[in-house]
Design brief:
288 residues, Rossmann fold, seven-stranded mixed beta sheet
Length: 288
């Protein structure tokens, strides 16, 4: 990852994570509003439901050593440690997030089970074959080399282990839909600039990369309808008094992101932005 992009991502989350926790809590990801996105629920519950639905969809019933790639302030890491009684490593580019995750682990009595550190997902500081479950919830979109990201996950995953990812994507490119239009590309570029993204790819492209890397039992699904209401709810929350005060204190990057929330909402409505989920296993043995 280039030092410039890495610094931009770090600064964005260093500046915005405290405000997000203040307004939304410890989970820094979409909420789940039912398969068609029509269920009404509190925003915190919607985010917990997304974790539940992903684990159920991925058929993850047991894990002992978990890697949370793009851990934020530790919402998923602590949840997974409690669910499975597992050891969890969380990595992020943000020192502020890693420090807050460590604080939250101590607050919840999980400091012996959960560890947070600053690390690059394209060059992870872990040995081969050391995690039986890798969880990546909305971090792939930040990475400038999608193949290397999945290759690193494959490397550190134990044979027989499970990789489960949810990530921002753009619509699939098919003969029926055609290539991305100039207008669609411009819309994506605006999102990239605001949220420190190098680019996003389609869910079928992620599946193709996973196949090339020898992942097995690859499954994908498009959950765009289920999560799309999230962005309008975030927009509404930005007008709450504590959010407005926090925005004024958090710097221009966070203010710009708040002013640009409609980019994501419109992206979902036009079918350009997709919420892709992918599950795969590292084969227990390799047949030559």
């Amino acid at each position: 990852m280039s030092s410039t992009l890495q610094r931009q991502i770090q600064q964005f989350y260093d500046a915005s994570s405290g405000l997000w926790e203040q307004v939304w809590g410890e989970h820094m990801h979409h909420g789940y509003y039912g398969p068609l996105g029509r269920e009404k629920k509190g925003r915190r519950q919607a985010q917990i439901d997304l974790i539940d639905e992903l684990l159920n969809w991925g058929n993850v019933q047991h894990a002992e050593n978990i890697l949370d790639v793009g851990c934020g302030i530790g919402g998923s890491s602590l949840d997974l440690a409690q669910r499975f009684g597992a050891q969890v490593q969380g990595i992020t580019l943000s020192p502020v997030q890693a420090a807050r995750g460590t604080e939250r682990a101590k607050e919840t009595g999980l400091e012996a089970e959960v560890e947070f550190q600053v690390a690059d997902a394209l060059d992870m500081p872990f040995a081969d074959n050391c995690f039986d479950f890798i969880w990546s919830l909305e971090s792939g979109e930040h990475l400038p080399d999608k193949q290397k990201f999945l290759a690193e996950c494959y490397r550190v995953l134990k044979p027989g282990g499970t990789f489960l990812m949810a990530t921002w994507c753009h619509r699939p490119i098919t003969p029926a839909t055609g290539e991305l239009t100039v207008d669609e590309k411009q819309h994506l570029e605006q999102i990239y600039q605001v949220y420190c993204l190098p680019y996003v790819i389609s869910l079928p492209e992620y599946a193709a990369i996973a196949r090339e890397l020898s992942f097995a039992d690859i499954r994908t699904d498009d959950w765009s309808d289920a999560v799309a209401p999230f962005w309008d709810i975030v927009i509404d929350s930005a007008f709450e008094p504590q959010a407005l005060i926090g925005l004024l204190k958090s710097g221009w990057g966070t203010v710009q992101a708040a002013l640009s929330l409609g980019l994501m909402s419109r992206g979902y409505r036009r079918g350009l932005i997709r919420f892709g989920v992918l599950s795969a296993q590292k084969p227990s043995s390799i047949t030559l």
